[in-house]
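New here. Invent one.

***
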Amino acid sequence: MEMKEDVVIIGAGIAGLATAIALKRVGVRALVLEKTHELRTTGASLSLFPNAWSALDTLGVSKKLNALYTPYKSTFVTDVSSGAVQEVSFTGSDGTKAGPRGVHRKILLETLAGELPTGTIRFSIKINSIKTHTDGGSSAAILYLDDGTIINAKVLIGCDGVHSMVAQWLGLSAPVDSGRGAVRGLSMFPRDHGLGNEIQQFLHEGRRAGFAPLNDTEFYWFITHNTSPNEDEEMKSGDPKLIQKNVIESFANLPAVFLDVVQHSDLSTLTWAPLMFRVPWNLIFGKLSKGNITVAGDAMHPMTPDLGQGGAAALEDAVVLGRHIGNSFHEHGQIVSGEVTKALELYVKERKWRCAGLILGSYLSGRVQQGGSRWYTKYLRDTIFYKFLYRRFMDLIAYDCGTLPQSSSSVDNKAD
């Protein structure tokens, strides 16, 4: 079977779904191909700063999430060895409040998917190869699927994650290991946990742990730590029971309140993974689009989670990409091959420096906060970073991704 589509998006994660919504808003219908048999709602939660909510506002989705989640005002950081606690405010250097909200990943994905017309997402799709074809000045991306289907797309957007097939096709270098790993989970208490609505972090011997309430009974929690070639097999096993056991035994010197949160974990949400990132200069000098093919989300800019910007940057990508494709579509009344190539180049130009800065900022933030217990690393972390530099990082995070052009056409709004 052979199909023709205006826009094909590979990956039904945050970037893929949000990009499909942005395109729907400007009158362009996209087909989203997902390799799993359903939405990948596994995992715990993510922090969304105001820049992410600005993008959700533009996509018309934030109203469905606002009432569920309350912004955090600050985070309390405890040095476990000394017992010293300091409050770090989510405020920019100009006094602007920049607190994130903790959001269930499952709820965010389901909310995004619910905005798309029926049939937008096709599951259990395996792509064997990607090729391009040019005919009379018009180019198309050709996808060869495992079931024999051939899809000709005027635009192909890779939102297929850290190990993106589309990024590889573009020639981007593979993400590198940061030398750190992270355990993350979601914990559920039978009644009000009584721990307030602030983020708590604990620093000890080069490890950083923390938890953040999502509501009265649920917590998101994490541990980031330096990895080694002899990383415990229990962590790498993927077995949530073994990961939980390893955390409780190996991190027993962390405060009891944190270990209690770990004990209450929903094992289906508990994961361990190495923290990967794409080197910033690969974004600045690499090929992020070629003809009518580009990437968004983790496929473009995998980063460590230390500034909470992975999901936010993906939402920004969606709006910016939707804006440029929408402008081209409205000007010409259809997707025109040569013109949409220019639109993708404008998208890349707008995003590459922003995303390179977020990657670098996230990496440096993680390294400083997890710098170890020597006096000079503590001084850099507690006095220089938290008291002075952190507000500058809030300035880096602050961003308005703009609006989408108004569509004169309508796309079926029937939920998937």
Remarks:
- The two ends are 23 Å apart (CA to CA).
